[in-house]
Amino acid sequence: MKILVVGGGGREHAIIRALKKSPDCTEIWCAPGNGGISYDATCKAIPATDVEAMVAFAKQEAFDYVVVAQDDPLALGMVDALAAAGIPAFGPDKAAARIEASKVFSKNLMKQYGIPTADYEVFEDPAKVMDYVRARGKYPVVIKADGLALGKGVLICQDEAEADAAVKEIMLDKKFGASGNRVVVEEFLTGPEVSVLSFCDGKTLKPMVSSMDHKRALDGDQGLNTGGMGTVAPNPYYTAEVADRCMKEIFLPTVEAMQKEGCPFKGCLYFGLMLTPDGPKVIEYNCRFGDPETQVVLPLLESDLLKIMLATTNGALDKTEVRFSAGAAACVILASGGYPLAYEKGKEITGLVNGQLPGSDAIVYHAGTAVQDGRLVTAGGRVLGVTATAADLPAALEKAYAAADSIHFDKLHRRSDIGARALAALKARE
Ligand code: AMP
Ligand code: GLY
Question: To which H or E segment does residue 150 belong?
Fold first, then answer.
């Protein structure tokens, strides 16, 4: 099969490397891709959000299957447009992608179907938000833009002044554009966070191995929120008992709710969960693989990813094996100094040969790299994700950090405590 992956970050690189293990995958392309992905796939410089150009290209190249990995093309209906052109694709259609693209949609869905989540109210009028926040008088309070905002539309406000500033930023200054026409005001929850990605074919759901993201820029979960500075899998807080509960109280009810709403979910459904003292609750849904969760989840997948993806499209997931290894994986992100704020690009990356580490079985996933005059250089905030798998988490972390330490570029920034909390949780259980 000739396959196209839409997107151009570390997640897409991980999907490509997993798909290439399938005997049915004979040719693989990526649009737009990036410098490092070009060692593994043929890259084509079409923006991921240009639905029309992407569909025309897919028709022209006669792809057998397209994997839409990024949220915004899914929200724009790329899967619908490909289907209309006769090309099957992995991912939800536009109606089902609302589960991520509109927080108002997902919160109302959870309320209607009794799926545990933080209590909330929806507002369209900025004045009414502050009346409500003041009358409620409980802090912190969480204020979220309704639509997609590159993961930056969630503001945790410690007092009235911060809430006022958040409302101004989202609803009046329109920092996230039309995504801020409505806001969700939400109760602040506490507890360990768990990411669970799952395959879904509209009626059957099969969860992947759980993972833990590290969203803050600096050690000790300090600094600004980022797209994710590292991940580990499995997540030690996600015990068999918690998994059982999530399946019954969250995963299956969500699949059923989407069916009943007339928008069955096909593709990868991502559950961002918080294990609160009152049980697991949904913090957010994503309609796609997580980044950098994918970089630790897919290396542990033992079954054929292409077969599973096709099964989600064809409604055959119940008959398709989804098996993970019993081991662990860790991913350390190497970022450009300054990220998530301003950073420099074009720094030469040394230590890699054809994008990988010679003599190491760690995998280097490329997020923001480019090839310039035959040299590999930095081209984004998150540059590389270095993943290692091993029999257990301590071994995976040691391998990932050893590999990360042999890669260099000017102003490289990474966290040195990825997995520390997971290790502490494992120790506490002994
Ligand atoms: P999101 O962009 O929706 O993943 O939110 C970013 C982060 O904000 C989450 O990973 C949580 O750590 C935090 N967060 C979101 N909603 C809540 C909430 N209701 N209570 C506490 N923390 C939250
Ligand atoms: N790592 C969080 C996300 O992909 O949304």
Answer: none
Question: Which residues face 282 on adjacent strands?
Answer: 117, 273
| Contact assessment for residue 8 and residue 66, using Cβ atoms and an 8 Å cutoff | no
**Does 234 sit behind a cis peptide bond, omega within 30 degrees of 0 on the bond before it?**
yes
Give the position of tokens 């410690």: 158
Could you tell me whether strands 222-225 and 205-207 are parallel, antiparallel, or unpaired per DSSP bridges? unpaired
H-helix or E-strand spanning residue 278: none
For residue 154 and ligand 1, the question of a CB distance below 6 A is answered with yes
Q: Which tens digit of pLDDT belongs to each residue from 225-238?
A: 898 999 999 999 99
**How far is it, in rounded angstroms, from Cα 386 to Cα 14?**
11
* DSSP β-bridge partners for residue 75: none
Q: What are the tens digits of pLDDT across the range 165-206?
A: 999 999 999 999 999 999 999 999 999 999 999 999 999 999
Q: Please state, as a whole number, how many other Cβ atoms lie within 10 Å of the Cβ of residue 405.
A: 12
Question: What global pTM score does this model have?
Answer: 0.96
Q: Which ligand is nearest to the CA of 286?
A: 2
Round the average pLDDT of the chain to a whole number and report it.
Answer: 96
What is the number of the ligand closest to the CA of 141?
1
Let me know if 131 is exposed, middle or buried by CB neighbors in 10 A (0-12, 13-18, 19+).
Answer: exposed
Tokens of 72: 């915004």
* CB of 116 closer than 6 angstroms to any ligand 1 atom: no
E strand spans, 152-301: 154-157, 183-187, 193-201, 205-207, 212-213, 216-218, 222-225, 230-233, 266-276, 279-286
User: In angstroms, what is the span from residue 267 Cα to ligand 2's centroid?
Assistant: 16
Helix, strand, coil percentages for the chain (3-state, nearest 5) = 35, 30, 35
Cα–Cα dist 108/370, whole Å: 42
